[in-house]
């Protein structure tokens, strides 16, 4: 295949957010009633948090937004122009910073612009090995189906063969997600999603029920798997293999293409379930440990895993090969600060 065959092959949807990262004390989390390892949407009570953070702590600004992190990483491993990212930002300094960081990695950002709100931010509050995420969506929340149906945007959607949408985007524009999911189904293309955070099955279960039948590949981590299993009343919510198998076997619009469910668990093995074969369809892939001394932080590890997996999936590599590349890319990102990819990246060489 030539690089021309990959032009615009993946289109992703999520919230473009600028991450504001700082090490904070547990008292700071307690003040805003935050858990040490969680991801939530900011509400009224978190408005002063952002100001206090930048005033009292040395902060770092890093381009973020889970979906954009994954597509930037996938693009680093794919031929030029393979990825396009859609979401809503403002045309302020933060929005420009996000777009330029995306372009630096070769990603094509097609932002809807809301000039009336600031670009979204995400407070990334680090306490030891844990991180608490508080997303203030701002302009990102303005994304609407009107943007995706503009002829110049829909043209990009039609060109693509693969779609990757985060669960975070369920809170913003479920209409857009369904529109793209239905298009993927009608055209026999691949539609992929990420659970993204425990709150998505907790508070958006109804939306997941509408979207899941279109999902060909679903990603998540162990806490999201447990939250999903709890909300969907599975008998063994702590059994990640059982949860993966049950989601993989859930009803599907296109039953001829079995669903793949991929759950990562940090340094523990990654679990993959395919189709409705129950435990028979479950595989487990060990993670090669990264020495503690080499880990800067694990922010963006899950996004990088997806990036590596996608880069191989769209080039039609085997499942073990996709998982191995996910592990490899995540192992590079945890050696960097935040969801950043190394300036110079070695070529991925599979051992399977
Ligand atoms: P963050 O949650 O930090 O990133 P993430 O990619 O989800 O990373 P996690 O550390 O949570 O990883 P995970 O639990 O998913 O994966 P796992 O640990 O299993 O946040 C990232 C972004 O989210 C931010 O940029 C922010 O902007 C964005 N965001 C927040 N709210 C948002 C919203 N509402 N909308 C849009 N964006 C939003 O690890 C995965 C893999 O990593 C493992 O399989 C393994 O291969 C590797 N790995 C992890 N730990 C180790 C280890 N110790 N040793 C070796 N390998 C490891």
Automatic annotation (TrEMBL):
Record's keyword terms, sorted: ATP-binding, Kinase, Magnesium, Nucleotide-binding, Purine salvage, Transferase
Biological role stated in the UniProt entry: ATP dependent phosphorylation of adenosine and other related nucleoside analogs to monophosphate derivatives.
GO MF term list: adenosine kinase activity; ATP binding
GO cellular component terms, semicolon-separated: cytosol; nucleus
Active-site residue numbers: 303 (proton acceptor)
Protein name as annotated: Adenosine kinase
Gene3D superfamilies attached to this UniProt entry: 3.30.1110.10, 3.40.1190.20
The species this protein was found in: Dispira parvispora
InterPro entries assigned to the protein according to its UniProt record, in alphabetical order: Adenokinase (IPR001805), Carboh/pur_kinase_PfkB_CS (IPR002173), PfkB_dom (IPR011611), Ribokinase-like (IPR029056)
UniProt keyword Kinase present: yes
Pathway: Purine metabolism; AMP biosynthesis via salvage pathway; AMP from adenosine: step 1/1
Cofactor or coenzyme needed: Mg(2+)
Enzyme Commission (EC) number: 2.7.1.20
A Pfam family this chain is assigned to: PfkB
């Amino acid at each position: 295949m030539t690089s021309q065959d990959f032009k615009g092959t993946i289109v992703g949807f999520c919230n473009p957010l600028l991450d504001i990262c700082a090490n904070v004390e547990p008292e700071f989390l307690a003040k805003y009633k935050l858990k040490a390892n969680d991801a939530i949407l900011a509400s009224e009570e978190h408005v002063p948090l952002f100001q206090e953070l930048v005033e009292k702590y040395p902060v770092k600004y890093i381009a973020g937004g889970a979906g954009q992190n994954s597509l930037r990483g996938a693009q680093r491993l794919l031929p030029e122009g393979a990825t396009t990212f859609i979401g809503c930002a403002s045309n302020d300094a933060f929005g420009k910073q996000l777009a330029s960081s995306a372009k630096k990695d070769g990603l094509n950002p097609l932002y809807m612009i809301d000039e009336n709100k600031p670009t979204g931010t995400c407070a990334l509050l680090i306490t030891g090995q844990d991180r608490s995420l508080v997303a203030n969506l701002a302009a990102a929340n303005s994304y609407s189906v009107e943007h995706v149906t503009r002829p110049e945007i829909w043209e990009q959607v039609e060109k693509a063969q693969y779609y990757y949408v985060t669960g975070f985007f369920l809170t913003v524009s479920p209409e857009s997600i369904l529109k793209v999911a239905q298009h993927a189904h009608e055209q026999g293309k691949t539609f992929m999603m990420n659970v993204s955070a425990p709150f998505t099955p907790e508070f958006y279960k109804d939306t997941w029920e509408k979207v899941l039948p279109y999902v060909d590949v679903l990603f998540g981590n162990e806490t999201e798997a447990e939250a999903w299993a709890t909300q969907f009343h599975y008998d063994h919510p702590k059994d990640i293999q059982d949860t993966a198998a049950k989601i993989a076997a859930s009803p599907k619009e296109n039953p001829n293409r079995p669903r793949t469910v991929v759950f990562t668990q940090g340094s523990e093995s990654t679990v993959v379930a395919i189709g409705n074969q129950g435990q028979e369809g479950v595989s487990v892939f060990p993670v090669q440990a990264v020495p503690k001394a080499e880990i800067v932080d694990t922010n963006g590890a899950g996004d990088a895993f997806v990036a590596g997996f996608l880069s191989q999936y769209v080039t039609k590599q085997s499942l073990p090969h996709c998982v191995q590349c996910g592990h490899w890319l995540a192992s590079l990102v945890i050696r960097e600060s935040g969801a950043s990819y190394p300036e110079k990246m070695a070529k991925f060489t599979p051992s399977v």
